[in-house]
C-alpha cells in the first residue's frame, strides 16, 4: 500500500482523478486498545461497519480476538484474514446453508436469534448425523428502544422483553451457554440507552427464570461528527457496568459488546476532487453510491477541509455537493463549510468515513474508488487521544 504523511502529500504527488481512501491504522489500533483496556468485558468488532481486510488485520494485531459477523461472506473473510479469531454470527435471521457452513466448516459456535423458528433452524443446521450440537452459544436478541440513537435499529430484529420468555426457555434447553443481546441503535448519544436496555434484559430474565451466561450490549457506541459530539465513552462503560452488576445472573456471567462505528470511524477519510462549481454547489467525484451514502441518504454531516498547497485566505461559506453519477439522488446537502474561493481542480478531504463509508460503495455508473493510501497524520476528529507525557496511555480527548 502507498504511504504518505497526509492528504496534501497524496494530492500533490498522485493528483488522484478518482476518490482516494486515506487509511490510518494507528487510529483503529488506538480505538481497539481503548475498548480492550476500558470496557468491563469482551469487545468484538462488528465487521459490517468496515470489512476491509487491512482493518481486520490491524484490529487482530492490536489484540482484538472476537468478531461479530453477519453473513457467510463476512465469516469467510475474517477466517481468511485472522484464522484463529472467535467469530460470532449475530444476524438474527440467517440462511440455513450459512449456519451450516459457519458451524461445520469455520468453527463458529455463537449464533443470535429472536424466534423459535430461528432456533429450530440453528439446531437443524448444526446437527451431525441427526445428533444435535452440544457446544452452541445462543444469544437471544431483545428489541430495545433506539430513542437515544441517531440511527434506529428498533424495528427489524429482536423479541420484546415481555414476549421473550418462551424463546429464552427453549434456547436454554439446547444451548451450552445462553446469552441475551440487543442493539440500542447506531451513534447512541447518551449512556442512558444502555441503562434502559439493561433494565429490559433484567425484566426478560426474571420473566423467563433462566440462567443467563452472557449479556451482549451490542454496538451503538458513538464517534464524533459535526453537530454530534458525544460525552466520554467511559461514562457509557460505567452505566453498562452498573446495569450488568445489577442483573440476576451468575457470578461467572460474561459481558460482551460489539462496536462497529466506534472502532473504525477514525480509520479512514476520502480525498475527493472538485470537478465543477455552480454557486454554492460543488460537483465532486464521490457521492451517494460511493463513500458518502450516509451524507446523502440521512443527511449525516462529516468534517471537510480544503487540501491546497497554499492555504486559502477566503472566508468560509456553506456548500452542498453533487456526486459523480447522473442521479438527482446523488446529492449531499451538508452544509459543508469550505473557503469561498474553492474551484474545479481543488481537492477536499472528507473525514470520519471509516464506518459505513467504504463499506457502502458501489460501482454504479462506473464511478468507483481510486487508490488506498496509508497516512500517518491524525484523523480530522477523535474520541481518543494520547497524552504527550505518556504516549502509550490512552485518554479521551474530550472531557464534557
Ligand atoms: C448486531 C449488530 N451488532 C453491532 C453493530 C454495530 O453497530 P455500531 O456500528 O453502531 O457500533 C450492528 C450494526 O448494525 C449490528 O447490527
From TrEMBL:
Keywords: Lyase, Pyridoxal phosphate. It holds the Pfam family Orn_DAP_Arg_deC. The keyword Nucleotide-binding does not apply. Its cofactor is pyridoxal 5'-phosphate. PROSITE patterns: ODR_DC_2_1. It catalyses: L-ornithine + H(+) = putrescine + CO2. This is ornithine decarboxylase. It comes from Sandarakinorhabdus cyanobacteriorum.
